[in-house]
Amino acid sequence: MDALVLGDSIGAGIATTIGLKSVARRSFSLRRGDVGAQLKLIPVDGVGLMSLGLNDAADPVEQLSKSIEKVVETALASGRHVVWIGPPCVTKAWDKRAEALDAYLKQRLAPTTIQYVSLRDPNICAPKLRTRDGEHFTVEGYRYVWDKIKRDAPLAAKLEPDACEQKKSQSLAAGKKSTVDCPKLGQ
Questions:
Q1: Banded pLDDT at 183 (limits 50, 70, 90)
Q2: Residues with Cβ within 8 Å of residue 165, at least 6 apart in sequence
Q3: Who has greater pLDDT, 141 or 185?
Q4: 93 lies in which domain range?
């Protein structure tokens, strides 16, 4: 089954570390990103791994509910398989809001076909798996997150990294500039 990572920089970090195809990018958010356009890129028989919430979590969840509903409705209407990767705990003053957003998403998505993966557990919150910014992960951290996603989302458990993307990510992980040129989506 093909996988496509959507959403924000957490998704981009997962894709780069694990070797998954991705359209995820920095600063992508529930309110400022075109999630619908990204959802359309998920292969019909594939799975979209959607990391959303980090760039919105500093705001109260009440201000996000309308945007969340739009994303949920669009994802369900797309007919695609979607795994929503929630906002991770952060070492910032607004972590309580990230925690509230995680709880809201967990409850909101439970009755839907969208599988939800919470990124709040003692290992994910531990500084040893985090970068200095307190929001993103080290390579070891992204690998732990990927293992958690596969454990918590049955759709993700079946996914294998793309061979070309995996070769590219291994080169980057070794600190080398990658000379691997993988085909772009839609080619």
A1: low
A2: 15, 19, 20, 21, 22, 182
A3: 141
A4: 3-173
The torsion region of residue 134 among left (phi > 0), alpha (psi -120 to 50) and beta comes to left
* Sign of the torsion angle spanned by Cα atoms 42, 73, 18, 181: positive
Give the CATH number, domain containing residue 53.
3.40.50.1110
How far apart (Å, rounded) are the C-alpha atoms in residues 63 and 174? Answer: 41
Q: Are 64 and 50 within 8 A, CB to CB?
A: no
Backbone angles phi, psi at 115, to 5 degrees: -85, 135
Q: What is the pLDDT of residues 81-97, one digit of tens each?
A: 999 999 999 989 999 99
In a domain, 114, yes or no: yes
Question: How many residues are given for the chain?
Answer: 187
Nearest Cα to Cα of residue 96 among 142, 104, 136: 104
Q: How many CB atoms lie within 10 A of CB 159?
A: 20
Distance CA 129, CA 41 (A): 31
Can you tell me the mean pLDDT for 162-181?
Answer: 62
Number of domains in the chain: 1
